[in-house]
Amino acid sequence: MRVHNFGAGPATLPLPVLERVQAELLDYRGSGMSILESSHRGPHYDEAHRQTIADLRKLVGGAEDHEVLFMAGGARTQFSAVPMNLLGGGRADYLTTGRWSEMALEAGGRYGEVREVWTSEADGYDHVPDEGSVRIEEGAAYVHYTSNNTIRGTQYPYVPEVGSAPVVCDMSSDILSRPLDVDRFGVIYAGAQKNLGPAGVTIVLVRRDLLERSPADLPETLSYRAMAAKSSLLNTPPVFAIYVVGLVLQHLERNGGLAAAEARNRDKADLLYGAIDASGGYYRGHAREGSRSWMNVTFRLPSEELEKEFIAAAAAAGLVGLKGHRSVGGIRASLYNSLELAAVEALLELMAEFERTHG
Ligand SMILES: *Cc1c(COP(=O)(O)O)cnc(C)c1O
Predict the structure, then answer these.
(1) Neighbour count for residue 181 (Cβ, 10 Å)
(2) Which of 299, 306, 301, 307 lies closest to 335 in space, CA to CA?
(3) CA nearest 249: which of 341, 337, 344?
(4) Opening angle at CA 170, ends 200 and 328, nearest 5
(5) Model pTM?
(6) Pairing of strands 284-285, 91-96
(7) Tens of pLDDT, residues 213-263
(8) Is 194 known to be catalytic?
(9) Candidates 3.90.1150.10, 3.40.640.10, 2.60.40.10, 3.40.50.300; correct CATH number of 15-254?
(10) Topology adopted by domain 257-358
(11) Pocket lining for ligand 1, CB < 6 angstroms
């Protein structure tokens, strides 16, 4: 029996995608072998590679000015790859809204001058900046922010306006959760294992004019320019992960694309926040109104003891992955694209019952 998986990542995948993987595992499309065993230079993988890029472009409406790269090392490696490729001798500005953006800032500082131009650390990272409230001085090599804060459960409802500097965004936990205007970004990066597929590949979209910034002496596999020149086939890419991402993208497309994904995600989040708000303070959301994430919903119960009991009761009912990140505790329900509405309905039922019996 499959459980309702609210885990933050690696996260739930669409059942039809898993079934497709299973069906074509032993004999991939007439090749007589699995995709796991196929050469990354052979025709079968080559088609999957190109198709995944084409499907990603289709979903976001082209992204004609950007290269789509598949890189290794997770989003965490991009914390360093971004400054290594883009900083030059310049200065970069960072908006810090949680642990991941803190780490990106720290990594940036190892390669040159970085400035923290906005942070909500003093408020326990319970909000993102109000639209239009961040002032960026001209001259930054780039401005970095994290669109969705997976651990704290906050999310930008808009793309920050930063003047002429390229915007670099860690979109690991909300990429393709809503329509995406790629043209507003210099670089978008995302580990696949939250919203796009399995762990092992990081999707990077880089605006082509930025490629010339990559210094010639970078390790090739970390160089946006070198990777783009070889269509991410410079070395062996994570073929299985890329193939599964491709299936997830096709699944998204078949189900109405990003506008439909947004509507489904909004419905799920509205349901859950509605239940939190209607509980009379029994369940308390962490994020401020206006900064609430629709991907990771974080909340507390009246005591840590009750939180433990709640997680156990949930597991007994087939609802797993609800434990908050170890650094903050509480409850975290991740509502990524692939989580079904039925899972949220089951969670609401559990919440009502738990409050009734433990109130
Ligand atoms: C999970 C996550 C990361 C880290 O991703 P890895 O692929 O494990 O390196 C970075 N940023 C955000 C926003 C995340 O959610």
Answers:
(1) 10
(2) 299
(3) 337
(4) 90
(5) 0.98
(6) unpaired
(7) 999 999 999 999 999 999 999 999 999 999 999 999 999 999 999 999 999
(8) yes
(9) 3.40.640.10
(10) Aspartate Aminotransferase, domain 1 (3.90.1150)
(11) 9, 74-76, 100, 146, 150, 170, 172-173, 191, 194
